[in-house]
Specification:
This protein is α+β, with helices and mostly antiparallel strands. Helices cover 35% and strands 16% of the residues. A 3-stranded antiparallel β-sheet has the order 1-2-3, with helices on one face.
């Protein structure tokens, strides 16, 4: 199948990505706030549908009295998307044929969160650098001499 699901402990999770190296272009040393906005919008266009939460494969009994699968203790498998909205937890049943698409959307949502975090840091650094360059440099005052007795005496 080739798609990593959160519930499958047999497969290795995808390697964490360093967002700076996955950027559409190399990060210049002296980036401006406008450069960061262009970078973020370009990276945003590459991401597909997004979802926040986690996709799980759950096993639960059904409501039928004489179900052979439930009698053997196997239960029935179903996918569920768990998340939070407005401080409340929600669960959405996901049909089996949509599970790969929903899983990809959850992964894209995590990637988007990493992009937002990186964009915030890069934007603030660029903004501070821009403000520092616009501020006139003050002349350094000569060192003041101390009054009173010298320490040598």
């Amino acid at each position: 199948m080739g798609v990593f699901f959160l519930y499958d402990a047999r497969r290795q999770p995808p390697a964490r990505r360093n967002m700076c190296y996955d950027s559409p272009y190399k990060m210049p040393r002296l980036e401006t706030p406008a450069d960061v906005k262009r970078w973020f919008m370009a990276a945003l266009h590459k991401i597909g549908p997004v979802a926040k939460g986690s996709l799980s494969l759950r096993r639960s009994p059904c409501i039928r009295k004489n179900c052979p699968a439930c009698a053997r203790g196997e239960g029935h498998l179903s996918y569920a998307l768990y998340g939070r909205s407005g401080g409340r937890r929600f669960t959405i049943h996901i049909p089996k044929h949509l599970a790969p698409e929903v899983n990809a959307a959850v992964q894209n949502g995590r990637h988007l969160q990493e992009l937002i975090n990186e964009a915030g840091v890069r934007y603030l650094k660029a903004l501070k650098r821009q403000l520092q360059a616009a501020k006139p440099r003050a002349r350094q005052k000569p060192a003041r001499q101390r009054r009173g007795r010298s320490r040598d005496a």
